[in-house]
Amino acid sequence: MRGIALDVLQDIGHRASYAHRPRNNSASGTAGIHKLRHHGFQIAKRMLQGDGMGVGFLCLALRLLRLRVSKFSSKLGNPRLLRGNRPRKSGDAVLDLTYSAVRLGEPLLVGQCPPWVPSRTSEHSMTQVRCTLRPGRRDDAPLLAELVNYAGEGLSLYSWSKMAGPDETGWDVGRRSAAREEGSISYRNATIIEHNGNAAGCLIGRGIGSSPTAIPSDMPAMFVPLQELENLALDTWYVNVLAIRPQFRRAGLGTRLLAHADDIASGRGHRGLSVVVSDANLGARRLYERCGYKEAALRAMVKEAWVNEGQNWVLLMKAVG
Q: Which is the most buried residue in 18, 106, 111, 160, by most CB within 10 A?
C-alpha cells in the first residue's frame, strides 16, 4: 500500500453457506434416500464450484448415486422421489442437479469457468454459462468502486469518505480513483470477468518489487500493518482486489480469476503470488487455500472507526509453478 489512496483491498466477501432441509412426509425409510440426495448435492455443488476433483471419481460417484436413489425409491413405492415423475420446484433440485452434473461428461478443473448452471428462468432446462475475461475500461469505474469496496469489506468506502470534499461522497472519490490512468485501483490494472455478457467481478493486482517500501511517518496507522505485510511478499504479484458481485457468486468465477492471476505472475517472472485477507473472512481464506495459498505472516488490525469482525490481517502466499 502506498499512501491513503491505496484503497485497500483484499478479501472476497465470499460466503460459502448453504442449507438443505429434507422433507419428512414420505414413506418409512425415506430418510436414507434424503441422505443420499444430500450427498449428491454436495458432490455436484463442489463440481460446479470448480473444486478440482478427479474425472473418474465425480462421474462414477454421481452416476452410482443416481442409480441407487432410483432403485431405493422404487422399492419404497414412493414415485415422488423418482426423477421425471414429479414436478420440479425452485430450491428442490437436488436430484436434478446431480443428474445434470453427470450429463456434463467431465468435471470442472481448478481455474475453469463452470460451463453449465441450472437456469433461473426455466425449471426444465439447463442454460450454458459463458465466462470471458477482458481488460478494464474507464467506463467500468462505477463497477470497480463497488467491487473494491466489496473486497475491502467497507474499508475502502471508509477511507474514501475521509478524503471526500464538501460537495462529494466517498463513492465519488472511489469512482474517480478507478477512472484514473494510474493508481492502485485504476481501471488499467483491472481484469473484468463477464458472466453471459454481464460484468460479474474483477481482479486488480500489481507486481511488488524486490526491495521493501519505506513506511512514511505520515502514513495512516490503519494502513501500516498492511504495508508491513506487503514488504514481506517481495517479488510477488499482489492480488490487491478479487471480488465477485453477490448475484454471481458460488459459480467458480473467483477461482477462474485466481487462475488468471497465476498466468500473470508466471508470465511476468514473479516468484509467486500474495494476498492479504482479514482473519474473519473465512470464505475468502478457504478459496485462496484451495488454490494453493498458504499463511505466511500476521499483523494486528488498526481499525480506527472502521467496523470489522477481524482481529488480524493475514498474508497468504503461493509459489509460481
A: 160
Instruction: Fill in the amino acid letter for 159.
Output: S
Least confident range of 12-21, 171-180, 210-219: 12-21
Q: Vertex 50, ends 44 and 53: CA angle to 5°?
A: 70
Domain spans, the chain: 4-13+132-319, 30-130
**What pLDDT, on the 0 to 100 scale, is given for residue 82?**
43
CB count in 10 Å sphere of residue 4:
16
Confidence (pLDDT) at 92 = 36
Match 450427498 to its residue by C-alpha cell: 39
Question: Regarding the domain with residue range 4-13+132-319, which homologous superfamily does it belong to in the CATH classification?
Answer: Gcn5-related N-acetyltransferase (GNAT) (3.40.630.30)
Give the CA radius of gyration of the chain. Answer: 23
